[in-house]
Amino acid sequence: MTPPQSPRSNAFAERWIRTARAECTDRLLITGERHLCTVLTRYAEHYDAGRAHRSLDLRTPDGDPNSIPLPAATVRRKQALGGLLNEYRAVPGRVMLG
User: Fold this and answer.
1) What pLDDT shows up at residue 75?
2) What is the DSSP string of 73-96?
């Protein structure tokens, strides 16, 4: 149910559901309610902590708004949900001694 005096709240929920379906559940064979809860919980964590959002200038909702990612660091990929999701993290580069 949409709360009174807030007709736009339904649009935000519909957008999240559409994104979750397109990026996650439409690409997996869900075997039961427990599996669905596990997948959606993991996707929600990825959505809030590892996925860039255009409305936030390609930052994550949980990220620091004052930090600017620098390309000087080495980037490592971490796969989740069997390779369906990819999360990228900057790690300090190695110093070459020579």
Assistant:
1) 75
2) SEEEEEEETTTTEEEEEEEPPPPP
